[in-house]
Amino acid sequence: MWKTILRRMLIMIPEVIILSILVFLLAKAMPGDPFTGSINPKANPAQIAHLMKMNGLDGPWYSQYWNWVVHLFHGNLGNSYQYQEPVTRLIAGRATNTLWLALFTMLLTYAIALPMGVFAGRHEGKLPDTIIRFYTYVTYCIPFFVILVVGIWIFGYVLGWFPTTGSISITASGWLDTIGSRFYHILLPGIMGALFSTVNIVQYLRSEVIDAKHSDYVRTARSKGVPTKDIYRHHIFRNSLLPIAAFAGYSITGLLNGSIFTETIFSYPGMGLLFINSISFRDYTVITALVLIYGILNLLGTLLSDIILSLVDPRIRIQ
Amino acid sequence: MATEENFLTIKDVSTAFKINGQYYDAISHINLTVHHDEILALVGESGCGKSTLATTIMGLHDPEETRISGVVDFEGTNLLQLDEDGYNQFRGAKIGMIFQDPLSALNPLKRVEDQIQEVLDYHTTLSTAAKHDRVMELLDQVGIVNPPLTARQYPHELSGGMRQRVIIAIAIACKPDLIIADEPTTALDVTIQAQILDVLRSIQAENHAGIILITHDLGVVAETADRVAVMYAGQIVESGSAEQIFNTPKHPYTRSLLRSMPQRNNESDDLYVIQGNVPSLRRLPTTGDRFASRIPWVPASEHEATPTMHEVAPGHEVRCTCYRNFTFPDEKGSDHV
């Protein structure tokens, strides 16, 4: 078990190095530079060159990359050109917002999807199953951002139940009030995100339950005299969860990627919104840091999936 | 020897499956009895309804997709009248079932011990320690060499023969009166087959159980069975003691089956092949002898319009009258060359 995890982590080292080089080069390859638009077009080219040199942007790419890596290991990701504050501090503030939103969305997703999937599979072909399938097809067909916009319009604007922007109300004071206000702000984006990401899980789980229901080992369990509800509890549920467990790690990273949409549309100050903004401002230091973080999170997600799967499926454990 | 007490009487049982909204009989009007201390072999080609009969007795069919009629009298209770909870008092406790494919019949995510113990959980009031001891005893009884080790393992760590032993251990955990073994040796190689059959026989002797052994392997039947029922296209066409079936087979189907069995003293290299296939459920002839299409040289006048069972010797019954003058086309004295 520990061997499996250790080996998987060792594989991650070269992956992270390659990822960091790619990320760095891609950011460099974008047209424009951080000073475009922020300085007088009639400025002296010598002055611009001086600015580039000051910021370490003049040498060949590998020396720039090396500088970046050295600073990275000192916990220094440079200053944001746009916000004029250290990238680490900037991201740390945003990351907690994203984390809370992602966590809430994930909990809600599984809380909705697991019972729904099992219920639909168990009552295959009946009315509730048809309704659930209709819901998943419709949701699957509509682009995520359209769902968000419609949701924000109905629940935030027309009905006015939820705030439509921000992560906290400016009038919030005291810790209880603060937590309450933060939770109130992630409710709508969290629910909308969860409704969308349940679809895959419900569909998977439903077909897994239907498969398991007709499997030989369930027939064996029935011939042992195990009551139906216990068959679902002890045999079908756990076995059907295997593919869901395998996807759990990925789905966490999926949520972080999805947060780019959610945060942009809800103007929620998290990593996703920061990412979009820094791309439009060519804020290299922030972009590279964020892409690197997203990349590492993806790698961690796959690692997590592998670990979860080897925990739940004895056939995958390496002796 | 067999006592004459019938603890299982199957009367006029038919099971129909729903296909595109219409019901088709997979087995029709089956009559059978099983005594203590005997092995009743159910023989026939694939698709002739053997397993359907087994799952009908166990009540494993989806009531929305099947229509079952008749009576399955098990020690005075008509199983077919029971609801799910009532049936669960019999399944595993008084009737044990052994399935065909040991590779898929065990839950891949549960340890062997948990899977055997599950039966004891629902049908006994033993303490946890007593259940553990019983699991060890059962594994030993089915010929597992190192019970404590196997108990901790998962099914994928066991060989096919060992998995089948585990399945047998599950089936016999509560000393059932009836064991239904649905092709227990089909997925195993020949050396393991003999061992598994030995295990079955020794268990039967110990528990005085009755066994319904479903197989298409006449070699297995000859080795183990006390009585034999031959099924064709959802009907029993011949039944009798093993000696009667093997020494004086009557029905053309039984005779064809025996003739298509490889034999050491057979001079010819060619095996007999029964023409055609078992008709599918939707194409079953509604009247006449269902086997008629596969012995086309027999004139229609030889068959009964609605074939019934005829007793030819005490305990030996044959369906239809066509057996009386039946010969194979290449046999001496045959006029249908």
From TrEMBL, chain A:
Query: Which residue numbers delimit the ABC transmembrane type-1 domain?
Result: 95-305
Which Gene3D superfamilies did the record assign? Answer: MetI-like
- What Pfam families does the annotation carry? BPD_transp_1, BPD_transp_1_N
Task: Give the transmembrane ranges.
Answer: 99-122, 134-162, 182-205, 241-266, 286-312
Q: Does the keyword Ligase apply?
A: no
Q: Which UniProt keywords apply?
A: Cell membrane, Membrane, Transmembrane, Transmembrane helix, Transport
Cellular localization per UniProt: Cell membrane
Q: How does it sit in the membrane?
A: Multi-pass membrane protein
Q: What is its main location?
A: membrane
Q: Does the keyword Membrane apply?
A: yes
Q: Which PROSITE patterns match?
A: ABC_TM1
Task: Output the superkingdom of the source species.
Answer: Bacteria
Q: Would you identify the family this protein belongs to, as annotated?
A: Belongs to the binding-protein-dependent transport system permease family.
Q: What is this protein called?
A: ABC transporter permease
Which species is this UniProt entry from? Levilactobacillus tangyuanensis
TrEMBL record, chain B:
Q: Which CDD domains match?
A: ABC_NikE_OppD_transporters (cd03257)
Would you say which domain of life the source belongs to? Bacteria
Which key words tag this protein in UniProt?
Answer: ATP-binding, Cell membrane, Membrane, Nucleotide-binding, Transport
Question: Entry's PROSITE patterns?
Answer: ABC_TRANSPORTER_1, ABC_TRANSPORTER_2
Q: How does it sit in the membrane?
A: Peripheral membrane protein
Residue span(s) of domain ABC transporter: 8-258
Which segments cross the bilayer? none
Check the record and name the SMART domains matching this protein.
AAA (SM00382)
Q: What is its main location?
A: membrane
Q: Tell me the leader sequence span.
A: none
- Compartments where found: Cell membrane
- SUPFAM superfamilies this protein is in? P-loop containing nucleoside triphosphate hydrolases
Molecular-function GO terms, alphabetical: ATP binding
Q: Which family does it belong to?
A: Belongs to the ABC transporter superfamily.
Q: NCBIfam families of this UniProt entry?
A: oligo_HPY
Q: What is this protein called?
A: ABC transporter ATP-binding protein
User: What organism does this protein naturally occur in?
Assistant: Levilactobacillus tangyuanensis
